[in-house]
Amino acid sequence: MIVVVEGISAAGKTTWCHQNAAQFLIKESYPEKRPDRQAGPGEAARIWTDWNAKRWSDAVAMERAQGVAVCDTDPLKLHFIWAMWQIGEVAESHWTAQLKFTRQALQDQRLGFADHYLFKKIDPDVAQAQKDHDAARSRPNFDLHLRLHASLVVWYETIEKVLSGRLNWELSETLPAAEHTPNPYRYDVSVFDRFIQMLPRPRR
After folding, report:
1. Which member of 39, 90, 97, 160 has the lowest number of beta carbons within 10 Å of its beta carbon?
2. Out of the domains of life, which is the source (predicted)?
3. What pTM value is reported for the model?
């Protein structure tokens, strides 16, 4: 079973992962040098997809060895660039480039849908208070994350529609039951395409 834990910065997902799934954890991580999307959306999309695929591979290996893997943020990661497009932070070309590479990676079974998703909805004021309380982390993009929250909720509402019963809107006190039904659509491109078609376009 692969579990994805999601939410904006300061929602509490990393703390929850360390408290409840440290032995199964696939940490959130980034390339040492993050690619410049403005310089080349296609090349940046390729680099990010390869990085995300490595995290997915780590999750599959952990699942094989331990029976469960818990990912701090979704290895599919496509939600981020989609949400950025929704709020006008990137051009549509950035979204379509990332979509193309991600779809191919799913078709090649280098990326996939998780078996279960935990998404932490959070009030902006609560997130701000939690950020202020955690002096150990600077969170330089926190204001951006607050702006992304509504779009990320829409993304995972759509996940819930296509993968019914596989999403919780809270971080439960324990991991989902190990016997949770495996997702038969993990690498199903037709389900992926239907999911993408259901996503709204920006309203602006």
Report:
1. 39
2. Bacteria
3. 0.88
